[in-house]
Design brief:
This protein is α/β, with parallel strands linked by helices and 442 residues long. It is 31% helix and 28% strand. Bound molecules: shikimate-3-phosphate.
C-alpha cells in the first residue's frame, strides 16, 4: 500500500504529453502478435495493464521486446499460430486485457487459464463467455463467470452474429478477435456505438471490416481468416489519462495548460464535450491523424464551470471519465446530473458508490438514484480533508488526488499503487506542473 496525500496546488502551467492510450496499446500488442512479420509500435503505454498483455502475448508465442529508443518490436506468429501457454495468464488489474484475450484464444484449439488481482477476480466475465460459447469455446469459471477461469478453445470455431446486450467495447472486441480465426463472417451489432479502436486497427493490419449504421444500431462485420500483415503504428495519447491534468487545470484558478498528442476519436470525447457545455475554456488544436486515429493538442485555461445534464446516450463515449467529471462538477455552480451509469458498478471498483462516498466525505452534496448520479456544486472549492479508499481503482485514486489539489483541505488516498496500471509517473507529472502530492503516513 502506498498512501498519498494531495494538498492545495498553485496554478498549473505548462505543456505535457499524455501517456499512450491504454485501449489502443492492448490492441496493438494483440494484433501485432497475430500478423506475419515484424511490427513496430511507438508511444505504447508502459503501464501495468499493458505490460501484462505484452507478457501474455509472449506466453502465447509472439516475440515482443522493447527497443532502446522506447519503441516496441513485435514478431508476429501469424493468424492461427498461437501456442498454448504453459502457465496461467495473470492479467493483474486489466479487464480489457482479459476480455480481449479470452476472445482471441476462444477460436484456437487449446486451453488457456486466466486469473487476475482481487479487483479483476470480482468482475463479470460471463458477458464475454456467453458469446464465446456460441462460437464453440467452453469456459469453466468460478461462480458468476468470474476469474480464475479456463477457456477451452473451439477446434472448429463458428462465425456468429451477436447483438451486444450491454454497451461494451471489450465484449465487441472479444467477439471480433474470436472471429479472426473462424471461417466466414462474424458480425457484432451494437445498439450504442462504443470505442472503435479494434475495428480501426484490424483494418490497419489488413483485415476486412465493414461497418454500417442501421436504424438505432451499428453493424460491424469481419471477414474471417484474413492474412494480417505486420504494420507500424503510433499510439495516441490517452484521453482518459489526459482527463486528470485537464480537469486539474480547469479547476485551479490561473492555470493554463497544453496536453499534446491526445487521441480525440469521437467515440472517446464525451468528457471534453461535457466540459465545454459546462463552460470550460478547452480547445483542440493541431488536429491530425496518427496510426488511424484522430489526435489533437488540448489547450485548457481555468475558469468558472456550471452544472449540466449529461445524457445516458453519452455514457459509452466517456465511460471511464465519470470519476473525474464528478470532481469537476463538485467545483461547478449548480447541479450536474449524470444518467445511465449502470456499467460504473462493474469497473475496477463499484465506481458509482466510490464516487458518491468519496465526494460526500469531501463535503460535496451528492445523490445516487438508480443509475443516475447528481453532484451539487456551489462554485467554490469543496472542503476536502477526507481519507478515500481507492479500492484497487486507478481512476478513483487519480480523481480524488485532483480534487485534493484544489479543495480547502488535503485529500488522502489509501493506496496509489494502482495508478501505474494506466498512468505511470502520474504523481511526478502532476507535481512537475505544480501539484503537491506526497507520500502520506499509513
Ligand atoms: C475498454 C472499454 C471500456 C473501458 C475500458 C477499456 C476497451 O470498457 O471502460 O477501460 O479498451 O475496450 P467496456 O467496453 O467494458 O465498457
Amino acid at each position: 500500500m502506498t498512501p498519498l496525500s494531495s494538498g492545495k496546488a498553485a496554478a498549473l502551467n505548462g505543456r505535457l504529453r499524455a501517456p499512450g492510450d491504454k485501449s489502443v496499446s492492448h490492441r496493438a500488442l494483440i494484433l501485432g502478435s497475430l500478423a506475419i512479420g515484424r511490427s513496430r509500435i511507438s508511444g505504447l503505454l508502459e503501464g501495468e495493464d499493458v505490460l501484462r498483455t505484452a507478457a501474455a502475448m509472449g506466453a502465447l508465442g509472439a516475440g515482443i521486446a522493447r527497443e532502446a529508443d522506447g519503441s516496441w518490436r513485435i514478431d508476429g506468429v501469424g493468424l492461427g499460430g498461437l501456442a498454448e501457454p504453459e502457465e496461467v495468464l495473470d492479467l493483474g488489474n486489466s479487464g480489457t486485457g482479459t476480455r480481449l484475450l479470452m476472445g482471441l484464444v476462444a477460436s484456437h484449439a487449446m486451453t488457456t487459464f486466466f486469473t487476475g488481482d482481487a479487483s479483476l477476480r470480482r468482475r463479470p466475465m460471463a458477458r464475454v463467455s456467453e458469446p464465446l460459447a456460441r462460437i464453440g469455446a467452453r469456459i469453466i469459471a468460478r461462480e458468476g463467470g468470474r476469474l480464475p477461469l479456463a477457456v477451452i478453445g473451439a477446434s472448429s470455431p463458428l462465425p456468429i452474429t451477436y447483438r451486444l446486450p450491454v454497451a461494451s467495447a471489450q465484449v465487441k472486441s472479444a467477439v471480433l478477435l474470436a472471429g479472426l480465426n473462424a471461417p466466414g463472417e462474424t458480425t457484432v451489432i451494437e445498439p450504442q456505438p462504443t470505442r472503435d479502436h479494434s475495428e480501426r486497427m484490424l483494418r490497419h493490419f489488413g483485415a476486412e471490416v465493414s461497418i454500417s449504421d442501421e436504424q438505432n444500431a451499428r453493424r460491424i462485420t469481419l471477414k474471417g481468416q484474413p492474412e494480417l500483415k505486420a504494420a507500424d503504428l503510433t499510439v495516441p495519447g490517452d484521453p482518459s489519462s489526459a482527463a486528470f491534468p485537464a480537469v486539474a487545470a480547469l479547476i485551479l484558478p490561473g492555470s493554463e495548460m497544453v496536453i499534446e498528442g491526445v487521441g480525440v476519436n469521437p467515440l472517446r470525447t464525451g468528457l471534453f464535450e461535457t466540459l465545454k457545455e459546462m463552460g470550460a475554456d478547452l480547445a483542440f488544436a493541431n488536429e491530425r491523424v496518427a496510426g488511424g486515429e484522430p489526435v489533437a493538442d488540448l489547450a485548457l485555461r481555468a475558469g468558472a464551470l456550471r452544472g449540466v445534464e449529461v445524457p445516458a446516450e453519452r455514457a459509452p463515449r466517456m465511460i471511464d471519465e465519470y470519476p473525474i467529471l464528478a470532481v469537476a462538477a463538485a467545483f461547478a455552480s449548480g447541479r450536474t446530473v449524470m444518467h445511465g451509469l449502470a456499467e460504473l458498478r462493474v469497473k475496477e471498483s463499484d465506481r458509482l458508490s466510490a464516487i458518491a462516498r468519496g465526494l460526500a466525505a469531501c463535503g460535496v452534496k451528492v445523490a445516487v438514484a438508480g443509475d443516475t448520479l447528481a453532484v451539487e456544486g456551489n462554485g467554490a472549492p469543496p472542503a476536502g480533508g477526507a481519507a478515500i479508499a481507492a479500492k484497487l481503482d486507478h481512476r478513483i485514486a487519480m480523481a480524488f488526488l485532483v480534487l485534493g489539489m484544489a479543495a480547502e483541505r488535503p485529500v488522502r488516498i489509501d493506496d496509489g499503487e494502482t495508478i501505474a496500471t494506466s498512468f505511470p509517473g502520474f504523481v511526478e507529472v502532476m507535481n512537475g506542473l505544480g501539484a503537491r502530492i506526497a507520500p502520506a503516513s499509513s
